[in-house]
Amino acid sequence: MVISGKELSARLKAEMAEQVKTFPAKYGRVPHLVVILVGDNPASVSYVTGKAKASEAVGIRNTTIRKPESITEAELLDIITALNLDDEVDGILVQLPLPKHIDENKVIEAIDKSKDVDGFHPLNVAALWQKQPCTLPCTPKGIIKMLKAAGVEIAGKRAVVIGRSNIVGLPVSKLLLDENATVTIAHSRTRNLGEVTRQAEILVVAIGRPKFVTADMVADGAVVIDVGVNRDPETGKLCGDVDFAAIEPKASVITPVPGGVGPMTICCLMENTIECFLKRRK
Ligand code: GUN
Q1: Which of 33, 68, 127, 141 could form a disulfide with 134 if both were Cys (CB 3.0 to 4.6 A apart)?
Q2: In angstroms, what is the span from residue 106 Cα to ligand 1's centroid?
């Protein structure tokens, strides 16, 4: 079975749109998401455009602030401070990566925790690892939603995550653990990676290398979640971290690229924006 993140996210966005329609009467306005994009990295521009389109579909107000690569760290921090203080702003997202002269950690820490729709603020990260209420990072949250929508039982399963980033690998490992999977985190220094991945009943791949996972690395009947967004060096087309054509026949469930995890990430960003809006109204 191929899980369409595109279809699932369209359904969830339609439901959110119905919910958001009721907000002006209840709260006087709709949620407002501000996205900051520094520079003109094509992938980042495309992600930010996707976020604006999804906001429009859900009825969320979206402001995208574009700044040149040359912006100083102090200038960026000033913008964030102003947005933190602006009561008409519910969510703040700074598109990563940032130029080298800007300290990403400093920028993430500057965002008010209650407006941190990415769930990247250290206080949100700490809350996640202590199983306290928090904003969940969008990609990991979307992955768990897809698994549940596909009827995948997570509890008791052997899950292997390839990748240990703050954005995907670490938080998705924690969410799988919270669903009672037995989780292994593999990475670039893992020895005999194929031996490890062949043990996986659920395999999550977030390594950022085109078609890195080959058919011999995957057990028959495994559930395969592909987080990669790469250009195929041969065809120039978008492709995942997983060799989809070779693995689809042996996987019980697999996500495509494009149209898999990506749309779910944006969908969860919409959900997080609504959650931040509602929490701030209380
Ligand atoms: N760059 C790649 N993924 C993400 C994400 O989920 N959030 C932000 N802010 N930047 C990213």
Answers
A1: 127
A2: 16
